[in-house]
Predict the structure.
Amino acid sequence: MSQRPQALPESADEIARAVSAGQALAADVLERSLQRIAALDGRVKAFVEVFHDAARHSAQALDAARAGGAELGPLAGVPVAIKDNFVMRDQRTSCGSAILEGFVSPYTASAVERLVSAGAIIVGRTNMDEFAMGSSTEHSCHGPTHNPFDLQRIPGGSSGGSAAAVAARMVPLALGSDTGGSVRQPAALCGVSGLKPTYGRISRFGLVAFASSLDTVSPFACDATDLALCLRVLAGVDTRDATSINAPVPDYLAADAPGIEGLRIGVPTEYFADGLDPEVEARTREALAILEIQGATLVELAMPHTRFAIPTYYLIATAEASSNLARYDGIRYGRRAEHPADDLNEMYTATRHEGFGAEVQRRILLGSFCLRQGYVEEWYQKAQKVRTLIRRDFDAAFSQVDLIASATSPGAAFSLGEKLDDPLAMYMNDILTTPANLAGVPGLSIPCGFTDEDLPVGLQLMGQALDEATLLRTAAVFQEATDYHRREPVL
Amino acid sequence: MSEFEITIGLEVHVQLEVRSKLFAPSPYASGGEPNTRVSVVELGLPGVLPVVNERALELAVRAGIALEGQINQRIHFDRKNYFYPDLPKGYQISQYDEPFCTGGRVPLGDGRYGQLERIHLEEDAGKTTHTSGGSLVDLNRAGAALIEIVGQPDLHTPADAYAFLTQLKQILQYAGISECDMEKGLLRCDANISVQRTGEAELGTKVEIKNLNSFKMVQRALEYEARRQTATLANGGAIQQETRLWNEEKGESATMRSKESADDYRYFPDPDLPPISIQPAWVEELRAAMPELPAARRERFLHDYSLPEYDTDVLLQDRNVADYFETCAEACQDPKLASNWVMTEVLRALKERDQEITQFQIPATRLAEMIGAQINGRISRNAAKQVFEHLLEHDQDVTSTIEVLGLAQISDPVELERIVQGIIDANPQPVADFQAGKQKALHALQGLTMKATKGQANPPMVQEILRRLLDSP
Amino acid sequence: MAEIEIRELAELAKLARLRQATSGSKRTSEEVAGLLKSFAMLQDVNTEGVEPSAYPMTIAARLRPDEPTKPLPQDQVLRNAPRQRAGCFLVPRVIEG
Ligand SMILES: [Mg+2]
Ligand SMILES: [Zn+2]
């Protein structure tokens, strides 16, 4: 038996090393995580459900395996929180929606399977905007999640629960999904690191679809090292997802990798336009200066179609969502509303009216509209053509630079309820993050400072398709030079 | 020329002969306990994704080649959005603006063709059974691999529609794409029909007929609908655009639903399935490996075997019968005689026994051997029939059967001449009659020879020998 | 423009099996019409000769071999069904027409 260490390790990387080496027990690491959740989550409300028994069972099994001489995986004993839009066998998944009430999955998402085989301990599922539609984690049937840096404020969204769980140090790693910024934006607002990989880099099988051509499985962590560790586990081809990419998975933070000397970082004018909060802009420019000091060259450039990203994104995302959400009909799973007997249409309508929240219904209507006969050319197909122009902006940029940098979110965390009645104002939060989804390229957000009110600000870096390594290396260099990512919220 | 013109277009759904579903790995065969051939994918659970079955794509492309369509190089799948309880995802994955095959044609059997609009790949829906207490949904069939063959509205008689379907089925069977068994639901057909005054440029109002469970039913339903529409128009009435259900028992159709203007399937490319590029070299490979199709085989039967059209068409109706015939014809080297035997005796025996040719008791080579015995005179035509009946019941070779039944014919010229000379010697009266010019007397002598040999003398040889001996001075 | 779209949105709601003609959905309709109005800026983008992108990038399609796997047991298929009968999902009687 290994003796219990005095202090438990902090990062996912340290936990996995310690547990693998027998210097820490997965069960102890988990208990500390559960204690922290018990102490703080009454106020943060990051979790929808904590898997106390299942997690303890897994941790004990892992410790027993290690005691029996088994080699453990790269995430051995790391507690991980999962956004409530991944399915796990024999567990509930709600997507923050009343329509999935009672749904228990008979299968497990590929991404979760990979985490578990790497030794991760799944501690619970986290809150989100209903079907990932939102930027504040307020649109959830479970109520809002609160930002750990200011409980009166939103954590961002839609993966706000996972971001808050990492920010409050309840878990070192959490899974989210990023369709238009749903991981990068809450990472920025909660002061943690979030990575949206290249579209297709991680299998979407078992991730409940919002907008299939934009959805990406995306992890949160406290720093780039843990993101790299997690991505290496998650990335790779999956025969169950026809859009998953069959390309080698590198060691994203190889010890012999160069620094960022000579790296060319593009700074697009359009990303620093009106509407960017002055404090956010200031922190972003300071961060760019730090990268310059580390050897990078900043290159001003133009990405002229950026201002069309919001309409393009919302038309495409809602069109796909209107179809993806047709399966919630109260027939095979989920909640069926009371309805008059012998009236199938009324069963459908009552079920969907009662089951979906207002934002989801709004988006289904918007999406159905752009696909209608007579409108599809003018709206959906038009948006697809502008998507091509946005992709070309990226192609042109990457012919000059290695990375593109900007703020992640145009402002820091806003107050709960502040934008709830103004959908367009809410949608504008995604202005800096949606282009990467439209072009399929990877992007990450790392903490780069704080506002006068002590609210975190995030720096976004975007890279070429499949070049997560350059993104993570740059983030790691930045985090070596700064300690914004180490600042914990006072709770 | 008649006052009205009929226009018919057929839409045929054919289930491909694959082992798993089009986008999901669960097995599919018709029948089975409800909801036992379903995976998370066809169940439309949150988070599932479709992946294309490569064999289904191959069979579809082969169907396109067999039906002489143009195989498109870039294909993608679209979602067709509508709500129905047996459509789990709320959309069907189908092909809208880039089907894998454009055009194509189906022979009508007489040199004419029915043209095709397109062929596309799509997934099947589940089955809904309506009971008084509600409707029951079984998803076993959901996701099964289908091709939809869309005919152009260029058929003008119900008989042509029947011919189209018969030939289409034959081609798809020959090409190994589907068994096309309508009873098992492996082939389903909807028919569109409109009637307009002859000479009018615009087609009449289209009516769709469903619930057609056999090719004959398609023909009857179209005949009924042509009469109904013609009568309505002749009486000054108008045709409603609608879908009608055929009732075979009553021999009539009734309105199922009038065409809703609200049908809007909101098609768009399925983002879960990246486009597939079809390599022309692959298509050529499939084309080269294509089994011989009915049209080519028909040509060959007509020309190489010199069979009449009637024989050819009867033999080609079932690919396995045609195979049987060919083996037999090649072995006995007399295609016409082989065709006579297969068309009459073999098909009759199968019908009596309610068997498929693949289950038939007499192998094709054995039948050929029997026909050979008939050709070389070892047995007579009548004796051959007895041998055939015997072989139907016994697994025995031809030679021993002839022996057992004592049917060997006397064809030895020396032996026969000895017997015939004996008959001549013993019967001076008919001999005198013949020599006095009474041809009938020859028949009497022939009959006496056959009687003396218990019917085993070779009749043409007997006749020849009689003439020679009687004519000689 | 927005007025016409609100009426059309009632039809849309029917297509999408969402409630129409209640006060709450009238607001939803107005909001959707408002969003469309602001998204109409796309109509001014010159996209002549531009191919639409239905996918974020060119991805080589991967196909699946025709190998059946074990299906879900019936009880797992029906596990979440709100109503079931005789091994089937039970829904209100479908009336054609
Ligand atoms: Mg059709
Ligand atoms: Zn069809």
Chain B has a mean pLDDT of 92. The pocket of magnesium ion (ligand 1) is lined by residues B 11, 148 (CB under 6 Å). The longest helix of chain B spans residues 215-234. DSSP finds 15 helices and 17 strands in chain B.
